[in-house]
C-alpha cells in the first residue's frame, strides 16, 4: 500500500475513534460527573476545603454607606403640611467581618460561628464629615417613649407629656451624623434611666454595633448534601423565632447571604435570613451579568417579599395588629427593636405602595440605585457582587395624651437608608477565573474530542481527493507520452519530396507524384 494511502486511512480511522470516544463520554457524562463531584467536595465548610479560609475571613472589601434624610420643614410638617427632605451622604465605612469562635459540631456536619462587625470611616469615599455635618430628623427616643405609653392611662401619658415639655423635647431634633449613628446621651432617656435603670440613656441607630455580632449562627457544612452548604440550622440557639404570629413567618430559612451552594439554576428560589429584619426573605433570578469577566446570575427580592398579607398570604404572620396592618413595601419590626416604632423598607420605598413615597417631598425610587441584589457565579455559588439596601423609617401617628402628635396621621417617615455592598477582589477573581477555565475545559473535553475527530475526517477526505487527483494526472501523462513517442520516431526517419515527370518517358501519363525516399540518420 502506498505511503499516501496509509496516511489517508490512518487519519480517517483516528478521526472516527475520536468522534466515537467523544460521543460515548458525552452520553455517559463522565467528565461532567467528575467535575461536579470535585466541586461539591471542595465547596464545603470543612478544614482544608477551597472555600473555608475565605468564608472565615472574606478578602473582598465590604463597604457600608449611610444616607440621611434631612428634614427641611419640620415646623410646617407639625402644622399638618407635607414634609420635605433632602438626602445627605454617603458616609462610607469599610466593614470588617471575620468569623470568630468557629467550632465544628455534630461530628463535623455543622459549624458554629460569630461574625463581629467592625466599621472604619473612609473619608475619600464619603460626601462629608460625619463629625461636623448636622441632620434634622425624627426624635426617635421621644417617639419610642410615647409609643410605649400609648396604652397607658390618661394621667400617666399626661404626666409624661408635661415631663417631656419641661425638657424641651420636640418631635424633631438636630444632631451630627456621628451622634445619630454611633450614639449620644439623650436628655429624655437619661432622666428615664435614673427611674428605670434598664432604659439605656444613650441613643444611636448603630449604637453598640461597632464590634458587635448578630448572635451565634450554626451552619450546615454541605459535606453530606451540597444543597445545604452554608444553610443556617439555628440562630441564637433557636431553629424557629418567636417574634411573629405564624410558624411560617418565624422560620429561619436559607443562608446568611454570604454563601450559596454550587450549580445554581435560574429557576430556583434563594432564601436568605436577615437578622436586621428578624425574618427570612427570598430572591429570584432577574438576569445574567458579568463581573470582572465572570458570568453571574443576578437574584433580587421580588415585590412579594414585602407585600402586605392581603396581597401575599405568606406575609400575614408579619402583621401583629390586624387592625393596623401596613400596605405593600414596608415591614413593622418594632417587635425586635425594643418596641420602637421602626418600619423597614427598601430605599425611597422602592417596591412599596406609591402612597408612601408620595407622602414625602424629595423621594424618588429608582430601580438601579435602590434595588437589593446578589450576583452569584452559577457554577460555584460564589458571590461576585452584592448590594443590600434598606431604609429605616419611623411611624408617626397620633397618640392621645401627647398634644405634640395632634396633627400626625400615620406617616411612615424616612430617617436613613444604607447600602452595604461588596465586589470580588482581583486576586479572588483571578483564582475563580482559573477554576472556571479548568472546569470548562474538563466538562467540554468530549466536545473537543468530537471536534478533533471531525477535523481529522475532513483532512482525510481532502487527502483522499488529492490522492485521486494525482493518480488521474499520472495516468494522463503516461497516455500522452505513449501517444507521442511511437509515431514521432517513424516520421523523423522519413522525408517527403516531390518527383517531376521525366520528359523522355512517354509511357508515364500520371504527371507529378510524390515519392518516398529514406533519409539517413545523422
Automatic annotation (TrEMBL):
As one GO molecular function, the record gives: scavenger receptor activity
User: A GO biological process this protein is involved in?
Assistant: protein targeting to lysosome
What UniProt keywords apply to this chain's record, in alphabetical order?
A: Glycoprotein, Membrane, Transmembrane, Transmembrane helix
Tell me where it mainly resides: membrane
Q: Where are the transmembrane segments?
A: 7-31, 438-465
Entry keyword annotation includes Transmembrane: yes
Quote the Pfam families the UniProt record gives. Answer: CD36 (PF01130)
Q: Can you list the GO cellular component terms from the UniProt entry?
A: lysosome; membrane
Where does the UniProt annotation locate this protein? Answer: Membrane
In which domain of life is the source organism classified? Eukaryota
Report residue spans for region: Disordered. Answer: 503-522
Q: Which PANTHER family does the UniProt entry name for this protein?
A: LYSOSOME MEMBRANE PROTEIN 2, SCAVENGER RECEPTOR CLASS B TYPE-1 SR-B1
Q: Which family does it belong to?
A: Belongs to the CD36 family.
Give the protein name, as stated in the record: Scavenger receptor class B, member 2c
Q: Which organism is it from?
A: Astyanax mexicanus (Blind cave fish)
